[in-house]
Structures are given as structure tokens and as C-alpha cells.
Amino acid sequence: MTRSGLKLSGVSAAYRDTPVLHHLDLEVNQGELLVVLGPSGAGKSTLLRVVAGLQAATTGRVLIGGRDVTALRPGRRNVSMVFQSYALFPHLTALDNITFGLEVRDMPRKAARERAAAAAATVGCAHLLDRRPGQLSGGERQRVALARALVREPDLFLLDEPLSNLDLELRTETRGELKALHARLGVTTVHVTHDQTEALVLADRLAVLRDGRLEQLGTPDEIWRTPATVFVARFVGSPAMNLLPADGPLTPDGAPAARPPGHRIGFRPEAVRLGDVGTPAAVERVDVVGEDAYAYLRLAGDGPVITARVPSASRPFPGEPVRAAVRWADVHVFDGDGRRVTGA
Amino acid sequence: MRRDRGRRQLALLLAPYVLGLVVLVLAPFAVTLALAFTEYDLIRPPVWTGTDNLTALADDPVFRTALVNSLLFGAVAVPLRMLVALGLALLLHRRTAAAGTARTAAVLPTAVPEIAYGLLWLWLLNPLYGPISQILRVGGENGLTAFGRTPPQWLTDPVDARAAIILMSLFTVGETFVILLAARRALPADVYELAALEDATAWDVLRRITLPLIAPVLGLLLIRDAIQSLQFSFVPALIVTDGGPPPYATTYVPLFAYRNAFEYLRYGYAAAATLLMLLLTVAAVALQWRLLRRYGRFHLR
After folding, report:
1. What are the residue boundaries of the ABC transporter domain, all occurrences included (chain A) (predicted)?
2. Disulfide engineering: B36 pairs with which of A92, A276, B160, B275, CB 3.0-4.6 Å?
């Protein structure tokens, strides 16, 4: 049996009087990297703040490593947090920023400096130790914040959108380093993001949050291949999954004859095949992204628009009549409430 | 062309201010500066006496007392005032309903006109029926305090009178308080949350975070308060203690200058005292500026 790194049971939280989290149950295994994914306002940051103790849960309990910390103040929970803004002390050098947590816990200065140097080396900011935050770039600040978070060897890492302030190239690079760092240190980590690529790449498991409720919890593969709800299906994947009425204008190949009205079918842009057979459609627009092209197709005269991913070398042109087909095996079926219909 | 026009415009816009500055500040200052080297009694024309006034001041025991009083007042009142303002700001920066009322109360004494404020304290400090002495006498007998001592004689004992003037100055910290309140509010919340996660004590937070982060503001306020402290002793000393009790216990340099100019009609002598006060202020500011430069190097994000 795997040990529990973090467990939330029945946790609710509110911002002023507005409920933000609704009786959330969530368990993260020891050493696991859980990514919490969701749109703005889903309650991701609130979730982290409740775990850290910066905000009180209105109901429920928080357990870290099997220890009930619900009533403990933040400093007694042995968690480290990297804030979206990094929250570096502007008046302290990188070194003093990293040793802050050790010094307020009365570690001798020499020992603290040695630990800080080791932590800085781990995240590749050993050469920045005598600089102040004002003299560091965004990426460098992020490294210092990471070093500060891991120097104390916490039971739990909380990362609040740590990559969102970096430019794309640096974000991709740092994402890889974060993953390698987690593999090496093996500290239980909760990483919050609204970037689905980041979530899919980093996560051991992925929790999709919507309006303060857990929409789905699973491995990135499970989330991608068997989205539990329409929301998850649409939120993960870019461009978003196509959604059509089950008895609508496009009939997938091999679909059973009886498809209940009110159900919806979903299929990803890459599942759409353009060719001589299938539903007639008109190409409205084509976006070329390097090797790939995304064709926006209006079905059956004035029907709904679906997206198809095609190799850009063989892309259709706007206005061109085409036929679109989808295999039943690539189709997800959702009921009227937006829940996945299994066995379809 | 354009640059010339811009300059003309700038000069035009600045003109009213510059005019006021010259007529109301610089010219009187120049006259004072010149008067400091003359003997002048408003009746006969001023007589040039060179540095006689300055040497006379140096030998004048009353002036020396006033100078020591002023320095002592500044050295005690300025740090205490800053402490009061900082304490109030850190106590009341949170947004709660009660804090709002308390903030207003903290600023209110500063808004009271100086003369009225002085008269109010004349009543507060009255040794017989003043509320302060009455409170201190609670639990004691025969007009003594609970510890069997005489309550402070605010208006008649030299040491107590000096303390009274300092006490009066501690409640008029409204502006300093408001600026410190704004400075504290401008500090990022996440830095404090991080400190909470690191289990930093309130003392650690104050010493390692809050104070260093508002140090530049504190430094500026200290300079300003030090400059003003040479002046805001004037009204209390005039109204409440009348420069006494003997021997000149609360005669500060401004009151000394005022007495010499307007009561003894020794304008030249008073001007020389004012000049020395100005030099003193400049020295204090220069010293503090150096300290400020040392602590004000870092930048807030």
C-alpha cells in the first residue's frame, strides 16, 4: 500500500462569503506529483492556501503524511510554497532569501549557508547567491524561490503557477527541469496550473477542478483518453474536442443505430478524417501551425462547425467542399448532464 | 524652436511659485541672515556689528540652555514620536471596522489647531484638578499617588515640565502615522504569507521584513520630524509652560528667538539665534541623509 502524502476530506473554503471549494476529497500519494488543473476561478489557489494553512477550511480535514494539520498554523505544517509572484524578500540577497526559513528556526548561520548553497546548486542558481531579487531575471528569481522552498526539506511542496511568469521558451525548459527535480527528490508535490500542456507533461496524476469541485482525478493518459465529463474533454486538448448532438449531422463509422437523443458525442480534431466518404462539409478557415493545420469545417450546409487536424501539406483550402468522417472507436459519448457514458 | 517654447511654458508655469518663494521665503531669509550681523531694535536703523551677536550668543547662558533644551527635546521626542506612529500604523493597517475608527482617532489630535491643543493640555496637566494628576492619584491618599509619591508637577518642576512638552508632542503624529500606514499597506502580502509558512515569529517578521522594507520611508520621516522638532516645541512652550519653570526649563531656541525679537526688541540677536538653529537643522539633516543612503539602497519591486 502506498503511503498518503496529502489527504483532503470534505474540505470546503470560502472567499469572504462566497464559497470557493465544495466538500473536496482528494488524496495524493507519498512522493507523487499531483497537478491541479482548472480555469481561473476554479479554486486552485484556494486549494493550495487551505493546504498551506494560509486560509482556513470552513469544513473538512487536511492530513499531511497521515498527520492531521487542520488546526495547525502554516509554520507547523512543514510545507514549502512557491508563489506565482515568487514572494522573494526584495531587501535580501538570494542567499539570505534561501536561509530565511532556516534562520528563523534558529539554525546556526554557517550550517544554514551550507544547506542553502547545496539547495541552490540543485536548482542551478549557485552563481546568483549574492544578488538581490531586483538584479535577477524572472527565470533566476524562480530558481531562487525554488531553492528557498526545498532547502528546508519539507514534507510537501506547493507550487502555485510557478511557470506562468516565464516566457514560453524558458517555461518549456523549466518544466523539464521541474520534472527531473521531482524525480530526483521524490517530495510529494501539488502543482497548480491553468496550462493543460504543463499539466499533461508534469503530472503523475492530474486533478481537474471546476467551480470548486473535483471534475476528474486520474493519470494524464486517463484524463486524455477517457475524460469523465464534457468539461474535462473540452478543457484538456487544444484545439478543444468537437462536440455534437449524438443524433446530429455527423454519423461516425460503426456507430450503433440507436443513439439516445440528448446525448452528445465528442471527438478530438485529430480523429477527423477528410476524404471521399463521410458527411459533406465546407471549409470555413484553415490555421496552419507548422506541420499541422487546423481546418474549421461547417457541416451539412448550415450545421455546426467542427475542427479537424490535418497535415499542412495536404490541407484543404477555404471554400473547398470536403467530406468528414470519424470512427466510432475515437468517439466519446456524454449524457445530458455532460457525464461520460461508459461502454458506449 | 519647440524646445524654446517648452522652456518658456515651463518658466511661465513656475513663475507664480518662484515669485512667492522669493518674496515670502528667500527675501525674509536673506534679511534675517543680514540682520544676524547687526543690532536692530525696530526704532533706530540697523547698525552693522559683524559677528558680535554670535559671540554674545556663545556666552549667553540662556541661549545655551535653550540650545541644550532643543537638542534634548529633539533627541527624545523624535524617536518616541516615530515609535508611537509606527506602533499605531502596524497595529491599525488591517482593514477592519474597528481599525477605521481607531485610525481616525489617531489622526484627530494632529487636526486640532495648535493654540487650542496647547490650551487643552494646560487643563490636562493642571496639578490640582487636571485629569492626568487625578488619575495618577487614584488609590493614593492626601494627594499622593498609590505609591505614596507626589504626582508630577508638570508646570512647576523643570524636569516634569520638559517631560510634559514631550508628552504633548507624542499625540500629534497624525501625518507620520498616515504615511507609515500607507507604506505598510504597500508591502506585498505574499512576503508575509511566506514568513508565516516559515514559522517566523512576530519579532522576526518585524525585524527581518517590515522594518527593512519601510526603512527608506522611516528615514525620510525621521529627517522631516527632526527638522520640525526644532519648531513644534514653540507653541506648547509659549502657551503651556511659558518657557519656564525657572531656570528656563522649557525655553527652546524658537521661543528664545521670539522673546528676544518681539519682547526685548533685539532683532539682530534673535536673527543670529535663528541662523544657528538653521545651521543645526542642516547638520542634523546631513547626518540623517548619510544614514538613509546606507539603508535605502535596495528597491521595492
Report:
1. 6-236
2. B275
Q: Are A295 and A308 in contact (CB under 8 A)?
A: yes
**Does A15 lie in the same domain as A108?**
yes
Query: Is residue A267 helix, strand or coil?
Result: strand
What ipTM was predicted for this assembly?
A: 0.85
3-state DSSP call for residue B47?
A: strand
> Distance from B214 to chain A by nearest Cα, in Å?
10
Is A105 in Cβ contact with B198 (below 8 Å)?
Answer: yes
**Is the separation of the CB atoms in A265 and A246 below 8 Å?**
yes
Q: Which amino acid is at B168?
A: M
Q: Per the CB < 8 Å rule, is B213 touching A105?
A: no
Residue B117, classed as helix, strand or coil, is helix
Give yes or no: residues A224 and A271 share one domain. no
Which three cell numbers mark A132?
538581490
Contact A317, A298 (CB under 8 A): no
- Quick one: closest CA in A to B204, which residue? A104
pLDDT score for B142: 76
> Using N-to-C axis directions, what is the helix angle for B211-229 and B267-295, rounded to 10°?
170
With respect to residue A243, please indicate whether it lies within any of the assigned structural domains: no
The minimal CB distance from A90 to the residues B195, B201, B301 is found for B301
Q: Where residue A216 sits, what CATH number does that domain have?
A: 3.40.50.300
pLDDT digits (tens, 9 = 90+) for A245-256: 888 788 888 878
Cβ atoms < 10 Å from Cβ of A340: 18
Contact A232, A340 (CB under 8 A): no
Cα–Cα distance, B32 to B267 (Å, whole number): 9
Same domain, A169 and A53: yes
- pLDDT for residue B3: 72
- Which residue range is the domain that position A315 belongs to? 248-334
Looking at the fold, whether A172 and A53 belong to one and the same domain comes out as yes
